[in-house]
Amino acid sequence: MRDIFENKIILITGGCGSIGSELVRQLLQYNPKTIRILDNRETELFYMEHELSEHKNLRFFLGDIRDKERLSRAIKGVDIIFHTAALKHVSSCEFNPFEAVKTNVYGTNNVIENAVFHNVDKFINISTDKVTNTISTMGSTKLLAERLVASAQYWKGDKKTKLASVRFGNVLGSRGSVIDLFKNQIIDKGVITITDPDMTRFIMSIRQAVKLVLETVKEMEGGEIFILKMPVFRLEDLISIIKEHFMIKYNLKEIKEKVIGTRPGERKHEDLMTEQEAKKALETPDKFIILPQITNSYFDETIRNYKNSFKTEREKFSSKDITPLSKQELKNLILREGILD
């Protein structure tokens, strides 16, 4: 990793978010020349600048990916871009669909076009399992973002920029995650609101998520989607673990539950890879690699050589078809990541 990132100029959009800020912290150990942190939240930038003030190779950019001109100034001279900025909450995107379009679609396209124009070496887009067989505005806009990344690998012509996406499941402990929500509900009112206890979800830690992103920079050839093979959990098991933990921590006799039903855009189970995608997917011991659907006359497809990869025999990858973690396994994972502290 040091060979890849040392002395490089790196831009992270949405750099104050859960994934963006963890990327900053992990990249610092590889001695990059500069890390540019772009975010549209002034207060978050202010606090992050003070928290990491001992690092002299950080630059803080206040700006929005909807602003193409601002992006051009932020991207000029950059070697690698990690694009984490997005509107990511399913419910808020359902009620504000065009805002999701402006950020997740137009905003992503602004970053892509500037990356190619300024001849950036590598561009990595952070995506989500909500894009597969999507029924939500958020998933639909992030699917378009994935397609924009993949198509740019085609239309960029002889520019050197390589572009790829990384598809996440639920990231444990990320800002606004279900654990955060339940924790705040218990502290505020002592009642947890549940959509459907039988829901299943893919799960990964912030550390695992960032590790996958950094490995992608090393492995990508352009146009791919990288997917970590991650475990599945049942919502009812997560609720039970959280209730037990906080009843002890706050000396509570009980924590009530209120079933509110599935919210707009939500599904009972999630998919990480569709049947159509599986037809063009490779598999390694720890991930899937969906190869680009569009070929590029400037790129020799025969040079693709991913370590320990083989053609997958999976027809799809759905949380419905995978045996979930046991309650104890899920608890061990949560405690190991220190999320409930």
What does this structure look like?
With 341 residues, this protein is α/β, with parallel strands linked by helices. The protein contains twelve helices and 17 strands. It has helices spanning 2-5, 18-28, 42-51, 68-75, 90-95, 97-117, 137-155, 178-188, 206-219, 235-249, 275-278, 327-337, and strands spanning 9-13, 34-39, 58-62, 80-83, 122-128, 162-168, 170-172, 191-194, 200-205, 225-228, 232-234, 256-259, 271-273, 281-283, 287-290, 310-311, 317-318. Strand 14 (281-283) and strand 15 (287-290) form a beta hairpin.
CATH architectural group: 3-Layer(aba) Sandwich
**Through-space gap between termini:** 31 Å
Number of β-strand runs:
17
CATH class: Alpha Beta
What number of domains? Answer: 1
Going by helix content, strand content and strand pairing, the class is alpha/beta
- Looking at CATH, the homologous superfamily is NAD(P)-binding Rossmann-like Domain
Low-confidence stretches: none
Sequence of strands across the biggest β-sheet: 3-2-1-4-5-6-10-15-14-16
Shape: globular
Radius of gyration: 20 Å
CATH topology: the name is Rossmann fold
Mean pLDDT: 92
Largest sheet composition: 10 strands, mixed
Helical amount: 25-40%
Tally the helices: 12
* Helix-strand topology string: HEHEHEHEHHEHEEHEEHEEHEEHEEEEH
Strand content: 15-25%
